[in-house]
Amino acid sequence: MSNGGPKITDIKIDPHNLYREEAFTDLTFATIRRLTPVKLDGSVDESREPIFTGMTQLMSPNGPIPVQCLIEGAKTLQEAADKLPAAIEKTVQAMIAEAKELERQEASKIIMP
Q1: Residue 5 within any structural domain of the chain
Q2: DSSP element (H, E) containing 103
Q3: Mind listing the pLDDT tens digit for each residue in 3-59?
Q4: What is the pLDDT of residue 111?
Q5: Region 49-77: what's the mean pLDDT?
Q6: 27 within some domain
Q7: Is there a domain that residue 64 lies in?
Q8: Is residue 61 within 8 Å of residue 36, measured between CB atoms?
Q9: Residue 20: domain span
Q10: Closest C-alpha to 58, from 84, 32, 92, 82
Q11: Is 2 inside a domain boundary?
Protein backbone atom coordinates (compact mmCIF):
# COMPACT_ATOMS: atom_id res chain seq x y z
CA MET A 1 0.00 0.00 0.00
CA SER A 2 1.56 3.29 -1.10
CA ASN A 3 0.57 6.74 0.06
CA GLY A 4 1.86 8.33 -3.14
CA GLY A 5 4.64 10.26 -1.35
CA PRO A 6 8.35 10.13 -2.17
CA LYS A 7 10.10 6.86 -1.50
CA ILE A 8 13.50 6.47 0.11
CA THR A 9 14.73 5.01 -3.19
CA ASP A 10 13.88 8.30 -4.96
CA ILE A 11 17.10 9.89 -3.63
CA LYS A 12 19.03 11.77 -6.28
CA ILE A 13 22.62 13.02 -5.91
CA ASP A 14 23.29 16.58 -7.04
CA PRO A 15 26.36 16.11 -9.27
CA HIS A 16 27.19 19.84 -8.94
CA ASN A 17 27.35 19.76 -5.13
CA LEU A 18 29.74 16.91 -4.35
CA TYR A 19 32.38 17.04 -1.60
CA ARG A 20 35.19 14.77 -0.41
CA GLU A 21 35.21 14.49 3.36
CA GLU A 22 38.36 14.36 5.48
CA ALA A 23 38.51 14.28 9.28
CA PHE A 24 41.28 15.66 11.48
CA THR A 25 41.33 15.06 15.23
CA ASP A 26 43.60 15.77 18.18
CA LEU A 27 42.25 12.57 19.83
CA THR A 28 41.24 14.55 22.92
CA PHE A 29 38.84 17.44 22.42
CA ALA A 30 37.76 18.10 18.87
CA THR A 31 37.43 16.95 15.30
CA ILE A 32 37.60 19.18 12.24
CA ARG A 33 36.05 18.01 9.00
CA ARG A 34 37.19 19.45 5.69
CA LEU A 35 34.72 19.12 2.85
CA THR A 36 36.61 19.62 -0.39
CA PRO A 37 34.44 20.36 -3.42
CA VAL A 38 34.88 17.82 -6.20
CA LYS A 39 33.60 17.26 -9.70
CA LEU A 40 31.68 14.15 -10.69
CA ASP A 41 34.95 12.47 -11.74
CA GLY A 42 36.40 13.02 -8.26
CA SER A 43 38.85 15.76 -9.22
CA VAL A 44 38.98 18.90 -7.06
CA ASP A 45 36.55 21.62 -8.16
CA GLU A 46 38.72 24.75 -7.92
CA SER A 47 35.73 27.04 -8.55
CA ARG A 48 34.33 26.34 -5.04
CA GLU A 49 35.86 26.85 -1.60
CA PRO A 50 36.27 24.03 0.93
CA ILE A 51 33.91 23.93 3.91
CA PHE A 52 35.17 23.31 7.44
CA THR A 53 33.06 22.05 10.33
CA GLY A 54 33.96 21.35 13.93
CA MET A 55 32.74 18.73 16.37
CA THR A 56 33.22 18.25 20.09
CA GLN A 57 31.31 17.01 23.12
CA LEU A 58 30.29 18.88 26.25
CA MET A 59 29.73 16.97 29.46
CA SER A 60 26.43 17.49 31.23
CA PRO A 61 24.81 15.83 34.25
CA ASN A 62 22.87 13.70 31.74
CA GLY A 63 25.95 12.66 29.76
CA PRO A 64 27.84 14.01 26.75
CA ILE A 65 26.17 16.53 24.44
CA PRO A 66 27.49 16.53 20.87
CA VAL A 67 28.19 19.97 19.41
CA GLN A 68 28.70 20.51 15.69
CA CYS A 69 29.37 23.83 14.03
CA LEU A 70 30.30 25.48 10.77
CA ILE A 71 33.70 27.17 10.93
CA GLU A 72 32.97 30.29 8.92
CA GLY A 73 35.63 31.98 6.85
CA ALA A 74 38.26 29.25 7.16
CA LYS A 75 40.15 28.54 3.96
CA THR A 76 42.87 26.28 5.40
CA LEU A 77 43.09 23.66 8.11
CA GLN A 78 45.21 26.06 10.20
CA GLU A 79 42.56 28.77 9.97
CA ALA A 80 39.87 26.22 10.87
CA ALA A 81 41.86 25.12 13.94
CA ASP A 82 42.34 28.74 15.00
CA LYS A 83 38.65 29.60 14.56
CA LEU A 84 37.25 26.40 16.09
CA PRO A 85 37.00 27.60 19.73
CA ALA A 86 35.00 30.71 18.75
CA ALA A 87 32.75 28.69 16.44
CA ILE A 88 32.05 26.15 19.20
CA GLU A 89 31.35 28.98 21.68
CA LYS A 90 28.92 30.63 19.26
CA THR A 91 27.09 27.34 18.71
CA VAL A 92 26.92 26.53 22.43
CA GLN A 93 25.53 30.01 23.19
CA ALA A 94 22.88 29.51 20.49
CA MET A 95 22.00 26.10 21.99
CA ILE A 96 21.65 27.65 25.46
CA ALA A 97 19.45 30.47 24.12
CA GLU A 98 17.25 27.97 22.31
CA ALA A 99 16.92 25.81 25.44
CA LYS A 100 15.98 28.87 27.52
CA GLU A 101 13.38 29.90 24.95
CA LEU A 102 11.86 26.40 24.93
CA GLU A 103 11.82 26.45 28.73
CA ARG A 104 10.14 29.87 28.71
CA GLN A 105 7.51 28.67 26.21
CA GLU A 106 6.83 25.56 28.28
CA ALA A 107 6.47 27.60 31.48
CA SER A 108 4.03 30.01 29.85
CA LYS A 109 1.58 27.32 28.75
CA ILE A 110 -1.78 27.60 30.41
CA ILE A 111 -2.74 24.48 32.30
CA MET A 112 -6.43 23.68 32.05
CA PRO A 113 -7.95 21.58 34.87
Answers
A1: no
A2: helix 77-107
A3: 667 788 888 889 999 999 999 999 999 999 999 999 999 999 999 999 999 999 999
A4: 65
A5: 95
A6: yes
A7: yes
A8: no
A9: 15-106
A10: 92
A11: no
